[in-house]
Amino acid sequence: MKLLVKSGRVIDPASKTNRITDILVEDSKIVSIGKPSAISQQPSAIKVIDAKGKIVIPGLIDMHTHLREPGHEEEETIATGTRAAAKGGITTVCCMPNTHPVIDDQTTVEFILLKAKNEGVVNVLPIGAITKGSLGEELSEIGELKKAGIVAISDDGETVMNSLIMRRALEYAKMFDLPVISHCEDKNLSKDGAMNEGYYSTILGLHGIPKEAEEAMVARDIILAELTSGHLHIAHISTAGSVELIRQAKKRGIRVTCETAPQYFTLTEEKVSQFDTNTKVNPPLRTKEDVEAIKKGLTDGTIDCIATDHAPHTEEEKNKEYDLAPFGIIGLETLLSLVVTELVNKKIISLMEAIAKVTINPAQVLKLNSGQLKPGSPADITIVDLNKKWKVENFVSKSKNSPFLGWQVTGKVVNTIVNGKIVYSE
Amino acid sequence: MPLKSKDLLGLEYLTKEEIEHILDTASPFKDLFTRSVKKVPTLRGKTVVLLFYEASTRTRTSFELAAKRLSADVINITVSASSVVKGEGLIDTGKTLEAMKSDFVIIRHGMSGAPNVLARNITASVINAGDGLHEHPTQGLLDIFTIREKKKRIRGNHLKGLKVVIVGDILHSRVAKSNIWGLTKLGAEVCVVGPATLIPQGIEKIGVKIYYRLEDALPGADVINILRVQLERQQQSYFFPSLHEYTLLYGITKERLAAAKEDVLVMHPGPLNRGIEISSEVADGPSSVIQEQVTNGIAIRMAVLYLLGGGG
């Protein structure tokens, strides 16, 4: 089976490619990226996608997704979550281990990989738990998890509060070349909190989560990364202080990478004012100054990746008192459009840099061979109409908890190709 | 002039004119209390539901009396004996009450914003009788009504030049929040004083001054509003070392009161922790208007029901 993506503008940050050309795919791999004339001589038993006027980029990698299966299939399944990803141009999702059971053993990893093979439409790469049950008490069998197929370890949502265990995790994971992904939140400082601490939490009467709850842990983990030389990846950073701590750490040569999510460069805490629970997310929406600092961190390269932290929750769970509603918003279907609309079109970062932060950069953090367009690479390709405007609605995800519902955005995925197969067409 | 919203969720959402209109409307209702027949037919045929998820004596009784004096039918729902204990959520409970054609749902809830959530899910008027740490608008209104009456500040003369000091646990106090919104909108100078651990972040942006020492806050005070120490919140979160120390630093005694103006009003939303935030000598003394606050509460709640019911 051959596939020719014809006459699109191929943009590949890994090779700094930016030109109108064709891509030939055979079976699951990219065969060649070449001059239109050279490839157009191929025999006619080829499926051709006309990408004229569109951009052709590596399939997106979302390194922070909650697929909810096993355990919370009412919120999302591997089948629905991967279809939502495909609609968003995402060809690889890394699923967080806070499922039921937690991804802390080989059996659960194998279950997810099997489900993904049978029912999924994009690549699913599990992230294993740092500690058994993500309870923060004893290390998971990280070596065995690695053999089973995990690409990183994290106790996402449950910060490893015990500094000694975090130290051991960073040291131990080094042997397997696995990054340790840290959700930085001092659980004592954030206790009972529902939103960012400040003027708005005061007038709304909601318990606050101070930005320092994040920053104190970012600082601790950087110090432990320096001690251990382990690879620390900090998840969803949301504050100016975190950006600065990581900027300084990188200058000192510490092995730290990080990601942010679209809500942290688009929304502020003011959004909570109507007690709309689709604004309840952890870390919480912060201030205008924080949003500006996140953008600056994206511009100067301090922030390596943009991930979704796609966290589906049902209408029943979300339509209730703010304190009772769970944290989390969905993001797979809006990631690329928000990056284009809010970062590229507003000239915060170039298109090339923006694509890097959702393709090759997460691939490098996770040591994947995808995220780029070159002969021999997996044929994970996304075709985007950069100028198309659309309204955010009709989610494919099983859950609808998005604060971006109704937004007018620019840039729409036209086709998503995973391992040479077209898994989404507009 | 009816109110703009169908609901009363907080004083943050009201204009200065709306607040004054409620206060003005309450005065004739208060006059009614001195008559032998204390009832008017204004809300005859209307149904008022009291939905209280938290314990309450004075607010609940006050709303019930207010509704009855307006001739409404009043239903009291005791949450502990309702389908809520079977797991029914707030919105479903609200929809059930709506299906029974209730015109008003008066809600007290432990979580901030619960009345806002209810209000956008039902068409009946929702009145907030205190939600979490957010607002307690009728308490704010009755406090301001009491201040206006005692200080003879009628309409057009607002509360300019008046210094109101709110003492204690500002962080957990919905009473403080509603007072601050209402008083600042009407032009009063508002100061808060309490342990630094109980002064919430950013409160100065509403336009209040922050003090940590009583002796700095009290001089020149026209009104002192003393908040209840919320003993139930004190346990796990290390706000202050002991009640003994709290009383030592913030307890209002006759001696401390001398720093304020001679005609200072002492207010307290109740229930009192006598001997902790307020001495009995002060609570029962000549400056105290605590009992009148309770009386005025009924008049304010009648005015709110009347105006939300389309009157005015």
Walk me through what this model shows.
The complex is a heterodimer of chains A (426) and B (312). Chain A is α/β, with parallel strands linked by helices. Chain A has 14 helices and 18 strands. Chain A has helices spanning 36-39, 78-87, 106-119, 142-148, 163-174, 199-204, 211-228, 240-251, 263-266, 288-299, 315-318, 335-344, 351-358, 360-366; strands at 2-12, 17-26, 29-34, 46-50, 55-58, 60-65, 90-95, 123-126, 153-154, 180-182, 195-196, 208-209, 232-234, 256-260, 305-306, 381-391, 408-418, 421-425. The radius of gyration of chain A is 21 Å and the shape is globular. In chain B, 37% of the residues lie in helices and 14% in strands. Chain B has helices at residues 16-32, 58-69, 90-99, 114-119, 137-150, 174-185, 214-217, 231-234, 243-250, 254-257, 280-283, 290-308; strands spanning 47-52, 73-78, 104-109, 125-131, 163-167, 189-193, 209-211, 223-226, 265-267. The model of chain B has no long low-confidence stretch (mean pLDDT 93). Chain B is of the alpha/beta class and 312 residues long. In chain B, the strands form two sheets. In chain B, strands 7-6-5-8-9 form a five-stranded parallel β-sheet. A four-stranded parallel β-sheet of chain B has the order 2-1-3-4. The A-B interface holds A 191, 197-208, 210, 274-275, 319-324 and B 12, 89-91, 109, 111-114, 116-117, 121, 131-135, 174, 177, 200-203, 205-206, 237.
